[in-house]
Amino acid sequence: MAAVNHSIALLFISLLVYGAGTATNLQARYAGTDLAKPNQRAKAISTAMVSTTLGAVAGPMLVEVTGHLATSMGVPALAGPFILGAAAFILAGMVFFLFLRPDPYIVAKLVFKSQSEGQSEGTDKGTKVQNNMSRGLIVGATVMILTQVVMVAIMTMTPIHMKHHGHSLGDVGLVIGIHVGSMYLPSLITGVLVDKIGRTAMSIASGCVLLLAGLAAAAAPPDSMLVLVVALSLLGIGWNLGLISGTAIIVDATDPTTRAKTQGTIDVLIALAGASGGALSGMVVAHSSYATLSLAGGGLALLLIPVVIWSRSKSNVPLHNDSLKSQA
After folding, report:
1. 179-215: pLDDT as tens digits
2. What are the tens digits of pLDDT across the range 12-37?
């Protein structure tokens, strides 16, 4: 309707609705863990993310088809994908409404309440657990925020950098497409590794991979597609490692009664961090270079390592997965 009536105000309203849908969709990675066993949470998160990949890949491929559909209805072609998005959101809502009964989150809260009533922890032990959970929230949020800032900053400037050096839109699309695939497709493997190896190790791995991405992007010759593909692939993989391990840490550090509110708050911080990274990246490139931005992003990612080590050194209960092994 906004496209047909050339209404900016209506467009902003529609984007607000789409943004709400996107924010809700991001919560799906948390929702997948509601009834998952502690040693299978990361795998549950990764399953939701792989499903997101299918839509992310299929959506752009349907732009031309939906454009033809829109013009046949008297609607501008570029509004076609929005029609597809509206239909997809409605269908998703119907699936949840009809089939997600009982709500896993409600069941998880009932299970937690039942287990809590059957346990009696001493004051000192309860305080230690609470402190460890607080540290988990700090670490999990830091991991996801830093990976988001680094990923968005470098990704945002890569197309501009490529266009400035004579690359075609096709080249740009190929690099970004491979990058997006690298962000989501490794999820199933990442989830298994996070559950098996541990949140700590995979968080550190995320920082190392993002550093390699920054170094590769900074060293890439302007006319080299291959090196840029490698750099952006590493950038996507590093983000994937950080998001899944960070999300798993957050789930481990919360209980079902407060988890949804905490997760929503952290996702807002991640979104703000990403927006800030995108805005600042342009300033950095304008006043220095793409290479400087890439090196700065890689250096920023290294902050993940001392944060995770700090948490391990302060915590009396090691960050998952080591605690699960000791319990077993």
Report:
1. 988 998 898 899 999 999 999 899 999 999 999 999 9
2. 999 998 888 888 887 878 888 888 88
**Among 130, 135, 127, residue whose Cα is nearest residue 308:** 135
Asked if 122 and 248 count as a contact pair (C-beta separation under 8 A), the reply is: no
- Cα separation, 193 vs 181, whole angstroms: 19
Residue with tokens 């059957």: 118
Length of the chain: 328
By C-alpha distance, which of 206, 292, 241, 260 is closest to 33?
A: 260
CB 195 within 8 A of CB 323: no
Overall pTM > 0.70: yes
Torsion of CA 168, 174, 175, 179, to 10 degrees: 150
Dist CA 278 CA 311 (whole Å): 29
Structure tokens at 102: 């009982």
d(CA 103, CA 325): 30
Q: Among 26-35, 146-155, 254-263, 308-317, which is the least confidently predicted range?
A: 308-317
Alpha carbon distances (Å) from 286 to 181, 249, 280, 289, 292: 28, 36, 10, 7, 11
Tokens 């605690």 -> residue:
323
